[in-house]
Amino acid sequence: MAQDSQINCPSCGGFIDVIPGQSKYTCPWCGNEVDLFKLARPTAPGAAPGPDDFKLIVPFKADENALHSFVLHKAIENDFAPDDILSAGNVESKELVYLPFWEADGNSEIDWTASFGYDRQEAYTAYETYQRNGRNYTRPVTRYRTVTDWRPASGKARASFTARAYAGADGAPQNVAEMLETGLTGVRAVPFAAAYVTGYSMEPFSKAAGDVRGRMDTQAYAAEDAEVRRHAQGDRQRDWRHSASRSYGEARRCALPLAKAVFSYGGNNYKIFADGATMSLVQTDQFPRDTKRKGRISRGFVPFWLSLVAAVACAALQGIDYVQPIPVVCGLAAPLLYGFLRKSSILGSSRKFRQATLAQKRLDEYQQLGNLSYEEVEKLRGQAVIPPQGLLARTGGDIILLPLLTVICSAAVAFGFNLFVLSWGRDRRSRILSNERQGAHLGDARPRPDRDRHGRLSEGTVAGPDEVPTGVGLGCRTEQLPDRIASGLDRRAGPGRRTGQRPDRAGPGRRTGRRPDRDRTRLPKDDRPSRGSSGSGGPDAGLSRRRFHG
C-alpha cells in the first residue's frame, strides 16, 4: 500500500507536501506548524496503518539519495565489473517500503546434556632408528601425546528471546525476509507513530500470528542453543543436546524497513535489497563480470606456466644433481612476479576508471538536483579526472611481449639444467666422478685441465718433470711424486718403460722399498767412485752423490 505524498493541515485543511523522514512542516496556506509525531494518524484517509494496526516500528535511516548512491557503489565494487557499467547502466527503480512482521517475546526453560573433555599430557615410549658407522640401530625414546578425558555433564538454563516472522505476501523474497528477521534483532523497535511512515510505502499484513509460529520457533531454538553453549567447560565439548519448554508473550505487529532497487545493464535487470535501518544487510543478484579482463589477467601467467613445464622437462632429462639454482629460480620467479604485477596493474587501472566515472555521474546528477555542498562538488571534480592507464595494464603488445618473455625465461631454466651444453655437461660429470674415485686413494679429486675423463694425458701433452707415467705409451696416466724422488727419476721414465715403483703407495712414514741414495741407475764413468774407496767413499764419491741428487 503506497503512502500518500501529501497530508492535510489540521488547522486550515490545505495540502502539505511531505518528505520521507521529515516530521515537522509549515503549512504554506496558513503558516501553521505541523508536527507529524503529534498526529494520531495521517489525515489523508487510508494513507497508512494507524496505532491499531502496528504497535512497533524500526524507522528508516536512509533516503532515496542514499539508496541511489549505495546501488552505484555496489555496481562497481567488484574487481571484474565492466568499465562501462555506470555509463551504460542505470538505476531503473528505487523503493523504500515497510514490511509487516509479527514480533513476540518469549522465555525458555532448558534441560541440557553434553560431554566435556579435559586434555592432559601422557608419556609413552617410542623406538627410533639411527645410523652409526654405516649400521642401523634402534633406541627407546620418551615422547608425549595429548589425551582427552571425557566427562558427562548436564544442567538447566533459562533463555529470553525476541522472535520476528515475516507476515507479508510478496513484498520480499524468502531470503530477504530471513535477513531482516535475524539481522535486525539487535536494532531496537520504537512505538509506532504516523510520522515514521509518512511518505513511504507499506505492505499490509496477509498472515496471522499462528501461521508464522514455526519461523519464530526456529529463532527461539537458535537463542536456546547459544544460551546452552555458554555453560561449556573443559578444553573440548561434544554431544550437545537440549530440550526446552517455550512460552510466548503477546504477538505484536511490527514494521521493518527495506530498501529495494533495480539496476539495468546490457538489457538485464539486477535487484538489490538492503535493510533501511543500517544498510549493512544486503542481498543482491550477481552483477555482470568482464570476461575479457579475466582473460588478460590469465594470459599474463602463461610465461610462468610454460617456464615451469620447461623446468619439469629439463629435470626429467638431465636430473637435478648438477643443476645451477640461480638461473632456474630467476627463470621461474621473473614470470610469476610479472603475472602478479600485471594483474594488480590491470585491476587497479580499472578500479580507478570506474571511480572516476562514478564521480562524473554524481556531478551530472548534482547539476540536475543541486543536492551537494560546495566542498563535495570540488572533491568530486578532483575524483572525476580519469587517470592514465598503468604500464603493465596496456596489453596491446601481448602478441610480442608474452612469447619473448616465455623464450627468455625458458632459456634461463634450460641453462640452469645445462641443456645447451649437454655433451659438455656429461663430460664434466664423468670427470668429477673419475676424480672422486681417484681421490679415494690419492687424496686429491681436483679436475686436471690437461686430462681426459679417464685421467689420461691428452694427445700432444708432455708430462711434467714431477710426473711419472704409470702406464705404457703416450697418454699414459701420471701421478704426482715428491720432488726428491721425481728429481732422480725424470731421466729414467720414458715411453714403454716401467718405473718399478708405486708412488701412490708412498706416503709419510711409509717405506717405499728402495732408498734413493742406493738407486741402481748407472752413472757416467767419470762419476763412478773408485774401487779402492769405501761405501762412504772419499771426496769423489760424495761429489757424485751430490751431483745425482742435485
How do the strands and helices of this protein lay out in sequence?
Layout: E1 6-8, E2 15-17, E3 24-26, E4 33-35, E5 56-57, H1 64-76, H2 85-88, E6 90-132, E7 135-166, H3 174-183, E8 190-191, H4 194-197, E9 201-202, H5 213-228, E10 236-248, E11 252-265, E12 268-275, E13 282-284, H6 291-299, H7 302-318, H8 325-369, H9 374-383, H10 398-416, H11 422-442, E14 467-469, E15 478-480, H12 483-489, H13 539-549
Parallel strand pairs: 5-11, 6-9
Antiparallel strand pairs: 1-2, 3-4, 5-8, 6-7, 6-10, 6-11, 11-12, 12-13, 14-15
Helix pairs in contact: 6-8, 7-8, 7-10, 8-9, 8-10
Briefly, what is this?
By secondary structure, the chain is an alpha+beta fold. It contains 13 helices and 15 strands. α7 (302-318) runs antiparallel to α8, α7 runs parallel beside α10 and α8 packs antiparallel against α10 (398-416).
